[in-house]
Amino acid sequence: MAWYQVKGNNEDTVISSRIRFARNLQGYPFGKGLSPEKANEIISMIEQALEGLDFLKTDMNALSPTAARALAEQHLISPNFAAATGPRALFRADGKSLSLMALEEDHIRLQCILPGLSLYDAYRLAAACDDRLDEKLPIAFDEELGYLTRCPTNLGTGMRASVMLFLPALTDAGYIPSLAEQLAKLGLTMRGTFGEGSAAHGALYQISNQVTLGVSEEDILHKLTETVENIIGKERRLRKAVTGEAALLREDRISRAEGTLRYARRLTSEELFSLYRDLKQGIALGIVTDITSETLNALLIAAMPAMLTEHSGEHPQTPAARDALRAKFIKQALEVKTHE
Amino acid sequence: MAWYQVKGNNEDTVISSRIRFARNLQGYPFGKGLSPEKANEIISMIEQALEGLDFLKTDMNALSPTAARALAEQHLISPNFAAATGPRALFRADGKSLSLMALEEDHIRLQCILPGLSLYDAYRLAAACDDRLDEKLPIAFDEELGYLTRCPTNLGTGMRASVMLFLPALTDAGYIPSLAEQLAKLGLTMRGTFGEGSAAHGALYQISNQVTLGVSEEDILHKLTETVENIIGKERRLRKAVTGEAALLREDRISRAEGTLRYARRLTSEELFSLYRDLKQGIALGIVTDITSETLNALLIAAMPAMLTEHSGEHPQTPAARDALRAKFIKQALEVKTHE
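^ Those are the sequences you sent over. The predicted structure of the assembly is below.
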């Protein structure tokens, strides 16, 4: 099961938590100066270092562009890594929670992604793997600068911690811009994630640490967790503050969204984000009772363009055909779920 | 079973056929000059004349205003008759197909309404009852003017034949105004029916004969049936002419309408007409498969304001509350139908 198919904690407001480490090997150029031979050498070294940890290796050049994009849509690799050329490999373990991109921007990008607010768990999983890498590989490290990375913004811990949040009430109330400002003062960045339109239509945001140098990993985890808990509280209070006539209108809108999700024969991804937003709230409010939060998350990811093509085997040639395929897939997936 | 709960022929385009006879009794004033005593005398005479024909008598003054309006919403009586005061009675037989309003505009308004294009059947049923009235009562008749009626537009046969049609494609194509003009030249009238918004939102129209004097009943039936068959053909050809991308968009719109009908928690009657229009087409086109045409007709009537109150026992005090009650009723009715 992938992270997005599993029930997480705080599922009404938190989609996922992610820890990512950037690492490089001593004695090899960082970035463009690396020859294909040296690149393959690095991939082999990583493969050997991971031996016994049940990692599955994927040669990215053996994948179709669509299969590569589908991995990015599942947040297992970066879109850049999917689109790149040249020697590069993906290693996956623990039901896809742990993944390691060899030769993305850095030689090693190790990430752990888990559902819900689980930064510490994700950190423990990623750090255990990182310890192995440290032990087996000549990881580039400087007493003063910490882990050395291609881009200076990653120096120090080389760690980026991020949480993907679902904030429809804060969005509706217009609080996102000021929230982003407050976060910036704390050294945190807030941005739309999950591709275009996800913030505006889906109310999905990613919050992550901006600073990696001069702070400890523990500081980063603590500050981000505390801040996210604070935001969760605000979002929940705002949702509850909707009462009376406005709550009835919200209920009608949400229930209609379920009807549209189940009955539409064409769905753009923008509309899907917007339905997701209503239904995700509806599940939390008890208005939508026959779809679970994790089913909805899984649907959203499975209905992304490359994912759609990957599991249907169909290659829609026009946006209209893709929208029809998306609607058909969702209808079928929900019918299966409802009859389970 | 009422007429609207039964499957009719040509159900893709025809809702119902109706025959109505206007009759009056010799020796009694037509209209306002009638005293309450004389009015009650007429009601008794009618009751006796109908004896043995299994008519059920309803004293209209014994009904609540809502119950009276609910009868009008089922097209069993006229809205004027529902709203009137003074002695008046309704007689019903044959599962509500036959109904007789005593002391509407005329002393007697006898109607037969049947689903589908069934003018001749409706005529036979109404005429058989009319024969009994002719036999038992001193019906006012003039050799030259035919049946005498309060309003001169009903003189002659005293018969009004009408067909309720569902014409979404002709409406969408903008053909209704020119069709109405052509019908006027044939002595036929076309008008929206089923209350406000039914033409604009529901594409529902009633076509009836304008002239009652100097034409035979047979002529009226023949001309109206022929004309309606002609219109049905035009409507069907236009629906079939929608192909390719436009047909796919129509399919999406229709299927979404089913989702909205099933999931909305508030429905105005205007929106219900509009959903009816999409779903009725969807049933004919095979896009909507788990709702029948007669279920949809019955829903539309059962969701009218007075009908809603009558069968729910609830008296919504605001438009919003009524819209919520309408949505709840429809959801439940469809769930029952789907599980049958």
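Chain A touches chain B at residues 245, 248-249, 251-252, 255-256, 258-266, 320, 324, 327 (CB under 8 Å). The CA atoms of residues 316 and 322 of chain A lie 5 Å apart.

Shout if you want it in another format.
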